[in-house]
User: What shape does this take?
Amino acid sequence: MTEIFQSAFWGFVSGGALVVGAAIGYYVNVQPRIVAAVMAFGSGVLISALSFELVEEAYEVAGLLPTVIGFLLGAFIYALANRMLAKRGARHRKRSGDQQTGEDEQEGSGGAIAVGALLDGVPESIAIGLSILHGGAVSVATVAAIFLSNLPEGLSSSAGMRRSGRSATYVFGVWTAIAIACGLSSLAGYTVFAAFSPFVIAVTTALAAGAMLTMIIDTMVPEAVAETHDWAGIFAVLGFLISFSLSELAG
Assistant: This one.
């Protein structure tokens, strides 16, 4: 399998977890506590991956300065974009309860939720392409972490979409489009940045990590804590340890 094909394939695989999760969340009445527990687990998985895969990779490529610049830039860009989308009705896009805003409550909220989902998925997928560009092969730990976190994201968000009155056509249209965008973003992470300097690659890798961490805190942790309360930290730790173990075994 060529590297360019790998980048697109694994991007689609990780993005496909959103569609699988969406199907479960839309058609199966999963208890909110279970959704929250899985979301907490996914948060821990992603935190481990961005720490031991992306940030460390950026540092190895070009050192501390571009890593710090990229990490902070990713956090600020995501936070600003997320704030703008929140004002348009996408604040609770990953919540499984009745917190999501319906179109009858705020016109244009459906579009904002779709854009928010894209904002959440793209940085992760770019990171997959960059990992192949840097290492010559896909990072199993990174793909596994993103897949394991996308599953509860799709599950929780689609359950909330259903409760806010979104149709199945809208829900699966959104997640299928995001899955395709994930594959294309991963491909772009490999092809577009191949011609750039190690400094730019390191900044971009760290930027993806900073955006991911901000996304976890802003959109995943609230859902995780809402139902599991004091148990959220335990589930997150389990996710972190499993992701870390995968990273060490794969290395």
About this structure: The helical segments are 3-27, 32-62, 64-90, 109-135, 140-163, 168-191, 198-228, 232-250.
